[in-house]
Amino acid sequence: MPPPAIAALDLALVRRAGGRLPGEHRGVGVGVGTELAQLRPYQVGDDVRQIDPSASARTGVPHVRQHVPERALTTWIVLDLSPSMAFGTADRLKSDVAEGVAKVVARLGVRRGGRVGVVAAGAGEAFVVPPAGGRRALGAIDRLLAQGVAPDGTAERDELAAALVRVRALARQPGLVVVASDFRDDGAWPTALRHLVASGQQVVAVEVLDPRELELPDAGVLVLVDPESGEHHEADTRSAALREAFAAAEAERRERVAHELRRTGALHAVVRTDRDWLRDLGTRLA
């Protein structure tokens, strides 16, 4: 992963999440910080070190300064480990690209004292790696990624939606949520994602594609396996009508996914197994 690309992606993610650079992620409420939140009259028990001389002299009444507390940014990664992510016909599998996205986001997330947590979807009950910082967080994420994706035929409906609901419950403060998935779960994930955005989270939806999902090659009779259900289907790809119908259906599905993501308010980034996914992701976020 080239350092300049990662640095550019770092700045883009920070701007998306809080609009500020090191030490200046806005907190909620008032507390210790560098940015003034408000001035108010002094009350018994207030820290006398926070008395503002100018305001006190101007009004004749002692006033204290209250600041916006600074906090470390918490980043959540929702990682799709469903069977369809094991597909790939180009330079790498979709799961390889999703793993790369998770690793680079995690590395950027622990900078400046930040914390990173992961919710894995598509491999049964949503698995949670609690937010942590530094090497502890990166080590836990590496161990999760080493487990790989779920076996064919084990996918269940609404696993992605369940993971998004889980993140919404766990993310107590506004932060950044990056979802790496092929969004082939036809369940209730749009509603769950819309509620997550409405809760104050900055959400980046990274859709992972493989070129062979977009159109069938003219390769004779093929036996195709649906990784989500495990069902086998025989297709004569010599038929131009079949290839055209497949491409049209896939184009309609992708437009539906893009439409749903626009409705949620999440930023939609598309990365592919046959392209420089890191460059594409950075370009979309910039």
Overall shape: it is elongated
Quick one: CATH superfamily of the largest domain?
A: von Willebrand factor, type A domain
- CATH architecture assignment of the largest domain: 3-Layer(aba) Sandwich
Described by strand count, sense and barrel closure, the largest sheet is: 6 strands, mixed
Structural description of this entry:
This protein has eight helices and ten strands. The protein is α/β, with parallel strands linked by helices and 286 residues long. It folds into two domains: 35-68, no CATH class; 74-285, 3-Layer(aba) Sandwich (Rossmann fold), CATH 3.40.50.410. The chain has a six-stranded mixed beta sheet with strand order 5-4-3-6-7-10, sandwiched between helices. It has a two-stranded antiparallel sheet with strand order 1-2. The protein has a two-stranded antiparallel sheet with strand order 8-9. Strand 3, helix 3 (94-109) and strand 4 (115-121) form a beta-alpha-beta unit.
Quick structural overview:
The protein is an alpha/beta fold and 286 residues long. It has helices at 3-17, 53-59, 94-109, 134-145, 159-170, 189-198, 240-264, 277-285; strands at 35-41, 63-68, 74-80, 115-121, 127-132, 176-181, 202-209, 221-225, 232-236, 267-272.
List keywords for this structure.
286 residues, alpha/beta, Rossmann fold, 6-stranded mixed sheet, two-stranded antiparallel ribbon, 8 helices, elongated
